[in-house]
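Appendix B.2, paired examples.
Example (i):
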Amino acid sequence: MILTNRLFERNVPSRNAKSIFIFCEGRRREYDYFKYFKEKDSRINIEIHKIAPDDNNSPEGLFDIAVNAFCPIEEKGYKPKYDLIEGDEVWIVLDTDPDKDNSRLEQIVNIKAECSKKINWFVVESNPCFEVWLFYHQENELPNTPIPETCNSWKTLVNQLIAGGFDSRRHPIFIEDAINNAQSAHKNNNYVLESGYTEVYLLGQSIMTILAEKIRIIKRKM
């Protein structure tokens, strides 16, 4: 379910205002996390797609949902849900957790290739799941113990590190720490994201181009 169906009517792009359209696989965690920033500043309009139970939540399914949201009239015969203007960005947030037929990696590679053909379309991964990104809000390097390999293990680790677990109403304020930590730790092996690493810091950097001052003020008052 897309949060809104209105078509944005903006004539002159502003250097200080842009829309970031985020399409996530998760039905709650990712949505709640990015919603925190959506509520912080009217200069940045973060539109978040929340996967519905009947949506195709495979990487290719999510990509198709994103494409259809901006589809030109001449291609589909109806008005697009959103109108992209200069400076707007589309981000597709994916996990690398394997699926039953092991087609996920191939799908992600294909989606990245397709997004590279579009202006300001980006794909970011977390291996194996979004909780890796949440982990870097607290930590600047991977644990010395064996790196968790499953999503459930990462959820457990994050809950152990943060008393009461990660709270998307409060803890996203540490996004700048997470950006620095995840970027410093970032490691690809022949363009394959290794376990325990995340590219979501790239999306975080984009969000901070508008929200940096406000985020820092809020953080200082904590």
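Example (ii):
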Amino acid sequence: MSWDVYSYLNYVSLFSLLAVPVCTYIAILKYRMYDIDRIINRTLVYGSLTIILVALHFCGVVLLQRLFVFLTGQQSTLANVASTLLIAALFTPLRRRIQGFIDRCFYRNKYDARTTLEGFSAQSGHARR
């Protein structure tokens, strides 16, 4: 590959990296997406959830595969199936915990308002009885 082609590819990759934030900025201004905190919140929640679930799946497959090799002397696809079922079962509770953690850390006003409303509705529910 000649240096001209390498230089051209380098400029294209640099331009494409710079184009993403510029296009995002233009989209926010054009479509008045000033309420971008919701997108940031979802990105934080689902990004960290994905990282945690991938790590759990990988560790689960490795550990279960070693367990099957220790018990039976051969590998089994059951390790992958069991790890996938574990991830499916953990998705919703883990998402709720991560959402609560991020709300407490970064969106304190929203979290305080939610807990105040929940407390008020619990008190009014007891008063009606």
